[in-house]
Amino acid sequence: MTETDREMDERLEALFSQARSAPEEPDAALMARVLEDALAVQAARPVPAAERVVARRGWGLWAALGGWPAMGGLATAVVAGLWIGVSPTLGVGDAVNILLAGPADDVISLVDASEGFGFDLYDMALAGEEDAG
């Protein structure tokens, strides 16, 4: 009463091969009725009016940049750049100087600002005192 899986597979394969060898075509009357029904349903639907597409300037660029998600990231980067660039409290310049050249007093001691720039700091200080008083 029980069949093994192999026997069952062989019987099913025989049935499938028989079905593949003789595909049935629908008769012409059925196809005519289906086509008639489809045309009736299509004719019953209202034809939408052609929508007027308004071309807006900048939308192509907007879409090329990626739309809202990309603009959100771009806006965040702009705000962060302005914040970092304008904010004097971050001390980015001091941090970079310390990382690259060590403490600030070492860097200042290497530069002699009194000579080589075409002016003398002492003479400028005296000139400022004379103008003030």
Break the fold down into its secondary structure elements and pairings.
Blueprint: H1 5-21, H2 28-44, H3 59-65, H4 67-86, H5 92-101, H6 104-110, H7 121-132
Helix pairs in contact: 3-4
Describe the model.
- By secondary structure, the protein is mostly helical.
- 68% of the residues lie in helices and 0% in strands.
- It contains seven helices and no strands.
- It has helices at residues 5-21, 28-44, 59-65, 67-86, 92-101, 104-110, 121-132.
- α3 crosses α4 (67-86).
- It is elongated, with a radius of gyration of 43 Å.
- The N and C termini lie far apart (125 Å).
Explain briefly what this protein structure is.
This protein is mostly helical and 133 residues long. It is built from seven helices and no strands.
